[in-house]
Known about the structure:
Layout: H1 23-31, H2 37-42, H3 46-55, E1 68-76, H4 81-90, H5 96-102, E2 113-118, H6 120-126, H7 129-135, H8 141-153, H9 155-158, E3 176-182, H10 186-193, H11 197-212, H12 216-222, E4 223-232, E5 278-279, E6 288-299, H13 301-315, H14 319-327, H15 369-373, E7 384-385, E8 388-390, E9 399-406, H16 409-420, E10 424-425, E11 428-429, H17 439-446, E12 458-468, H18 471-476, H19 478-485
Antiparallel strand pairs: 1-3, 1-4, 2-3, 5-6, 6-9, 6-12, 7-9, 8-9, 10-11
Amino acid sequence: xxxxxxxxxxxxxxxxxxxxxxxxxxxxxxxxxxxxxxxxxxxxxxxxxxxxxxxxxxxxxxxxxxxxxxxxxxxxxxxxxxxxxxxxxxxxxxxxxxxxxxxxxxxxxxxxxxxxxxxxxxxxxxxxxxxxxxxxxxxxxxxxxxxxxxxxxxxxxxxxxxxxxxxxxxxxxxxxxxxxxxxxxxxxxxxxxxxxxxxxxxxxxxxxxxxxxxxxxxxxxxxxxxxxxxxxxxxxxxxxxxxxxxxxxxxxxxxxxxxxxxxxxxxxxxxxxxxxxxxxxxxxxxxxxxxxxxxxxxxxxxxxxxxxxxxxxxxxxxxxxxxxxxxxxxxxxxxxxxxxxxxxxxxxxxxxxxxxxxxxxxxxxxxxxxxxxxxxxxxxxxxxxxxxxxxxxxxxxxxxxxxxxxxxxxxxxxxxxxxxxxxxxxxxxxxxxxxxxxxxxxxxxxxxxxxxxxxxxxxxxxxxxxxxxxxxxxxxxxxxxxxxxx
Length: 486
């Protein structure tokens, strides 16, 4: 979608001018408001915001809290546009309004949540050139990034266009990603996690067709490929807090949207809707979507522990503290920041800090992961991370199914190119993110040179850019596009 940044990003025009605004002006105004229902009530946007949120897909403004999520990657067969469009139209996509109405933050949820994301190829599959250029205008920064993809846009992190992905499943052109967040099928999914890949995929396809209303016989007719990944909240496969394979609590510093209870204190206030939402052409009134980035990242626990041990020896500190220095937080999410204090009996807010009095990285190193990703200096736009982990404690391969939503793909690319893989920021030498050093670079730092035999703590295995369209776009236009071309 085009670069349609809101013209009023700082707040509402006020209720008095409500009747003087056009539909686009009202949308721009709403995208500039903080995601707090009181702000929308004050601006007399109660009905408007419900319409907007009922058309935004789940997992963007609110994360899915389910124990398991199925990541279903699809490549469509040619000649099936109308049939596939009709099937996608019939899928009961979950809305942001439904998630907000549930009032769920961290407790167990009972109903499934389904989302649909389309790639650049996926939109081309359904849209004629005339419609496609209205969705993704030429010479538009987001359109260019969406077309070029991860490897071209972030070559230092993802290898460049001539490097193959580690996994063939992501080397093929992907058209769509369907997310099925579920608690209904826990036992069946647990039984499939350790199955050989072929058996696992057969079982997962059965769950996929069951939850999307697709006849199993149609699966072979519709898809050139259908690959499914299992995502979990944490290594135990429970509804406890999200945690990665390095043992760190995850998803702490995301922007907040319509929190069920007020944050403890500033600056942890709800973010503006325009942080990650943008207008979706060919959708209903106020229809919005968001660009999405998927990455499959392998976490090597042994390599991370070895790196933390070498860091601890070099810095003459404990291994646990060394690991916290590399990430930028302790495993429970507590910041390293020296002035960090819990405010008496108020809610503990793990995000009420910045690095303004630690400019040289004496407390939180300049190349700690969270500091490289988010310097907290208001110079970068934010993204919202909705990742899950994959694998089991005994799996040879385990890691993170990273998924982020952002208004502009350049916001993600800035984190990768300016943050994680660059050695300088804002005129200072910072070093790369500890998790993204190449092994030969680590050899120079720690004095060992068996780089070829030393795995990286985090390895990129594959990924794709997507866009999460408004629900009304899926329900009202995919089949129209297909019929227009047939």
